């Protein structure tokens, strides 16, 4: 048993190295060599000065949270247990501090043109208050990040939300592109000034409505509105990352305490539950299920073709995707149900008839179904649902089946059928 | 946070405990260890009859967020494994010193190198 005082679940090696460089203890207390694989590990009682802290850091610490380094932020990984937090969101409601996510605003006469050039979905279809999921690509069609683009409800202009640690990079990308192409737009990285919480679960809307100054029950999926919560001006959007109904709430970072306090009594949830919830819903994690360096993938391979509009005005990566659409692609992301004993994890090989046909990018034990589930890329010949495959789990092969990656539905279906 | 550290057991620095009773040595992981791992979802244990040397990795405990080897605090032969963990690995979380035990060894090894409860408490 090692002491689990490591960080950065999604970059195990580099996370450990970086932590060692900063002079933090990285080893087990015992000196013996240990086999360990850390996927998402929290620590307490020590704070990492090189990491950015969310405005609610002290609040979370007092609540007994364990923390982890995520995208350069020191974020709560668990408050109680992953199982408890996960169940709260599936059964009733939970709240997440997700202020580590980046926020970038884009205004000006060419804001729409700029957004359309640098994202894959058609921003031109957004009415005020609408939001859309989208990808940000390089010239080769490789996903740099995924994002949600919000058109502000009260004014022209956009807010988009890159993943943790990507705010500055995307602000630069947008500004440089605008300058190089004579587009008139103001691009501002608002990450540090913006607080963001997600209230998710079947009871989320009712709970938010009980503290909001405006009704929100009529808010459509991927729509947003302005409302006050605890006298704080908030942008409330019916979006999320859990597979449940719910909202994400943007507000000035300095008002974080007031907004968080308005949801007193709601189960606080950390990144651990956020990961199991998103995986059950079949949602991808940037930097893990795709990554320009470690896992370079196009939206087609990643199963995100539904946010690519090849017929819209020109965008970065369009040509490469057009070619790919004609030529087809060799590998694609699939959902995997583990049938044998074991849990597939990031990087584990996927085999068929003893041959390597792909690898796992995310995997866990599903708290809802008690079944091990995973996402991974496989040779397209094996991507059809129902295909039997093997996953290599610590030098053992374990039986598995390709199933629809929307595990919440596909595993529920199986339960009903049985 | 306060962790249970029952008196009368011997502890390894790597957070296993042993309980000697009637010539059989029961082995498990500590309350501290189960809390660090979090929700345990999978436990892999050796077969009965297997011989373990002290410090051998004899199995592993996997939670939603991590997996870790577990080590034999002393040498011995596995005479019993906790079959209940196959279907209910969460017993290690709920009851690390009782229902969540891992294996039983037949051993003539003396546990002099291990820690008593007070010594272990100082290390966590």
UniProtKB/TrEMBL annotation, chain B:
The organism's place on the tree of life at top rank: Archaea
Key words, A-Z: Lipoyl
CDD domains, per the entry: GCS_H (cd06848)
Gene Ontology BP annotations: glycine decarboxylation via glycine cleavage system; protein lipoylation
GO CC terms, sorted: cytoplasm; glycine cleavage complex
Pfam families with a match to the protein in the record: GCV_H
Database matches in InterPro entries: 2-oxoA_DH_lipoyl-BS (IPR003016), Biotin_lipoyl (IPR000089), GCV_H (IPR002930), GCV_H/Fam206 (IPR033753), GCV_H_sub (IPR017453), Single_hybrid_motif (IPR011053)
Domain Lipoyl-binding: 24-106
Presence of keyword GTP-binding: no
Cofactor note (record): Binds 1 lipoyl cofactor covalently.
Repeat among keywords: no
Annotated transmembrane regions: none
Obligatory cofactor(s): (R)-lipoate
Residues with PTM N6-lipoyllysine: 65
The protein's role, per its UniProt record: The glycine cleavage system catalyzes the degradation of glycine. The H protein shuttles the methylamine group of glycine from the P protein to the T protein.
Family, per entry: Belongs to the GcvH family.
Subunit structure of this chain's protein: The glycine cleavage system is composed of four proteins: P, T, L and H.
PANTHER family reported in the protein's UniProt record: GLYCINE CLEAVAGE SYSTEM H PROTEIN (PTHR11715), GLYCINE CLEAVAGE SYSTEM H PROTEIN-RELATED (PTHR11715:SF3)
HAMAP family: GcvH
Name used for this protein in its record: Probable glycine cleavage system H protein
Higher taxonomy: Archaea, Methanobacteriati, Methanobacteriota, Stenosarchaea group, Halobacteria
């Amino acid at each position: 048993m090692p002491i689990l005082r490591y960080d950065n679940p999604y970059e195990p090696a580099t996370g450990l190295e970086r932590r060692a460089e900063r002079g933090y203890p990285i080893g087990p207390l015992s000196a013996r060599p240990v086999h360990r694989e850390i996927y998402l590990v929290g620590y307490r009682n020590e704070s990492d000065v090189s990491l950015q802290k969310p405005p609610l850091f002290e609040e979370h610490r007092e609540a007994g949270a364990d923390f982890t380094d995520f995208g350069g932020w020191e974020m709560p990984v668990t408050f109680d247990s992953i199982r408890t937090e996960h169940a709260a969101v599936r059964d009733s409601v939970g709240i997440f501090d997700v202020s580590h996510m980046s926020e970038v605003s884009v205004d000006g006469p060419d804001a729409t043109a700029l957004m359309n050039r640098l994202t894959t979905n058609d921003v031109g279809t957004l009415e005020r208050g609408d939001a859309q999921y989208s990808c940000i690509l390089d010239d080769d069609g490789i996903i740099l990040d995924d994002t949600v683009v919000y058109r502000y409800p009260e004014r022209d202009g956009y807010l988009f939300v890159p993943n943790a640690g990507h705010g500055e990079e995307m602000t630069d990308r947008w500004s440089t592109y605008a300058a190089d192409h004579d587009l008139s737009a103001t691009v501002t990285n608002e990450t540090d000034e913006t607080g963001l919480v997600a209230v998710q679960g079947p009871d989320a809307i009712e709970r938010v409505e009980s503290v909001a100054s405006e009704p929100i029950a009529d808010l459509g999926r991927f729509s947003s509105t302005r409302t006050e919560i605890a006298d704080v001006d908030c942008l409330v959007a019916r979006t999320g990352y859990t597979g449940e109904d719910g909202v994400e709430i943007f507000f000035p970072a300095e008002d974080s305490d007031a907004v968080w306090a308005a949801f007193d009594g709601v189960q606080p949830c950390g990144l651990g539950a956020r990961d199991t919830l998103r995986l059950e819903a079949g949602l991808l994690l940037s930097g893990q299920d795709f990554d320009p360096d470690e896992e370079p993938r196009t939206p087609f391979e990643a199963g995100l073709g539904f946010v690519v509009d090849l017929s819209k005005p020109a965008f970065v990566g369009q040509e490469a995707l057009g070619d790919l659409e004609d030529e087809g692609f060799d590998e694609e992301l699939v959902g995997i149900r583990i049938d044998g004993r074991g849990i597939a994890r990031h990087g584990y090989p996927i085999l068929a008839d003893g041959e390597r046909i792909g690898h796992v990018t995310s995997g866990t034990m599903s708290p809802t179904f008690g079944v091990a589930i995973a996402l991974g890329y496989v040779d397209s010949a094996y991507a059809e649902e129902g295909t039997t495959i093997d996953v290599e789990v610590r030098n053992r092969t374990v039986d598995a089946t390709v199933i629809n990656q929307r595990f919440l539905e596909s595993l529920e279906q199986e339960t009903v059928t049985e | 946070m306060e962790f249970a550290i029952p008196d009368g057991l011997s502890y390894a620095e790597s957070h296993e405990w042993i309980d000697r009773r009637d010539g059989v040595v029961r082995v498990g992981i500590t309350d501290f260890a189960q809390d660090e791992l979090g929700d345990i979802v999978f436990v892999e244990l050796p077969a009965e009859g297997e011989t373990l040397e002290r410090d051998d990795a004899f199995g592993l405990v996997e939670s939603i967020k991590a997996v870790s080897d577990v080590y034999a605090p002393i040498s011995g032969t596995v005479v019993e494994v906790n079959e209940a963990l196959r279907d209910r690995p969460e017993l290690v979380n709920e009851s690390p010193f009782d229902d969540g035990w891992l294996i039983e060894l037949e051993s003539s090894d003396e546990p002099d190198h291990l820690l008593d409860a007070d010594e272990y408490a100082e290390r966590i």
